[in-house]
Amino acid sequence: MDWLRSPINKDEHWLEIELLILALSTGMIDAVSYPKFHCFTSNQTGNTVLFAVSAFSAFGTRQETNQQIPAPHLAVSLGFFCLGVFAGGQTANALDSKASRWWLLVSNIYTTVMVMLAALLNFVFIPCDMVNTAPVLCSLGLLAFAAGSQVAMSRQLSMPEIPTTQATAAYVDLFVDPLFFAPTARNRSRNRRLIFLLTLCAGSFIGGPVYKYHSSALAIFLAGLVKVVVTVMFFFNSESDKVRITWSNTPEAQP
After folding, report:
1. What percent of the chain shows pLDDT beyond 70?
2. Where does the signal sequence lie (predicted)?
3. Which of 21, 44, 99, 248 has minimal Cβ neighbours within 10 Å of its Cβ?
4. C-alpha closest to that of 238 among 254, 224, 251, 216
5. What pLDDT, in 10s, does the model give residues 66-92?
6. Separation between Cα atoms, residue 210 and residue 136, nearest integer Å
7. Fold of 2-52+68-253
8. Residue 7's beta-bridge partner residues?
9. Which of 100, 93, 95 is nearest to 9 (CA)?
């Protein structure tokens, strides 16, 4: 039991690899969600802007505004993403379990289940031309909630360079880094941001072709399998040598 309650070592490269693999999964899902559902499930900056585009397109007459963006899709994605962040983040805060192994396992397991359920919905109920239907909105809600919970988990691991979802801040922080030209061994933060962006992009280049040449269900299912790999990897993180989380919320020094 102490092994599950103990915090993992947040300084090791193993954790970096796990978060990067989660970013790969995110890229695969968003490469499907935008062409399939006309919105994002993790890039909520894009969804926020698309709300205005959706509202304007209802009154616009120019050719650029003719494409209708389903407002319910945007509302469900943004709403469930925020709910996922809130639920995951506040639960971890209340239990004082941000970096404990059991919480990482539980968090990744339930988000993986949500992704797999979304893949099942896409396989059984959602043909290419469906919008604003219950299966579509349920699929979006599951993927967005999972993305929100995932980013909440990653942010609480004190590794902001690998948020596993949003890329904008990573681009900015990468290129304003005063040690941008430093040797690889001297700038771990820059290395993390760069590899995160490349991994997120790689996920999109995997998910996009799978969606185009096969189906959205398969692409989302493969993203879920990637998350399963990370869940297994969490069993092998080393324990932190600084503190041990206990159910009494009292830090206890390691011997």
Report:
1. 87
2. none
3. 248
4. 254
5. 556 788 889 999 999 999 999 999 999
6. 19
7. Growth Hormone; Chain: A; (1.20.1250)
8. 100
9. 100
